[in-house]
Amino acid sequence: MQALNLADFPVEYGILRADKLRLFSSPATLTLGAYGFPDNQTEIIRRENKTAKAVILKGYDHTGREKQLAMTIYDGWDSIELLHSTGTNPDSEKSVIVYGRTVRHKQYGYEPFLLISQVITKESLKDFTEEELFPIDEVCYTDREKHGGYGPVTILLKNGDKKTVMYEGMEGNLQL
Questions:
Q1: What is the tens place of the pLDDT at every residue in 34-68?
Q2: N or C: which end of the chain has fewer CB within 10 A?
Q3: pTM for the full model?
């Protein structure tokens, strides 16, 4: 069975994910999207910082209230893309979904295992700061190849926080 180890933690305005792939068969295409953002003349902004990429959606719901959403992709993702839809959002006739996409090509080989991303939202059009959009300072891998295939992974945030994720044994250690 193909699987993922899911790991996330809160950041200001949203959540940061550090999911680990457990795929036994390739090729495989994976996507991870945010929710359907109401598309009432949405402004779409693309930003980059080192190897990270972000898409910011700024707009309004059907009542005219300001809102925005940003998705940032880091390690493991190939691209960040948009999907436009009609008749699928309960708030507005049109909507747009921002999502990360990656493809694993090799049947045998050591491709990146970790998929790091974040989704943040605001109920205003005030710009996200650079630190809010790109909160990661460094990702520290313990495996020799720096792909996250084994061992813990530590994420150092620009605000000084440090998050260490140990994927081994996660299934037997569910805590709320």
A1: 989 999 999 999 999 999 999 999 999 999 999 99
A2: C
A3: 0.91
Q: Which amino acid is at 94?
A: K
Rounded-to-integer distance, Cα 65 and Cα 50, Å = 33
First-to-last C-alpha distance (Å) of the chain: 26
Cα distances (angstroms) measured from residue 65 to each of 43, 81, 102 = 14, 25, 34
Backbone conformation region of residue 169, classed left if phi is above 0, alpha if psi is from -120 to 50, else beta: left
Count of Cβ atoms closer than 10 Å to residue 134 Cβ = 21
For the ranges 36-45, 114-123, 139-148, 164-173, the lowest mean pLDDT is seen at: 164-173
Residue 11 tokens read as 């950041």
C-alpha 117/C-alpha 19 separation (Å) is 9
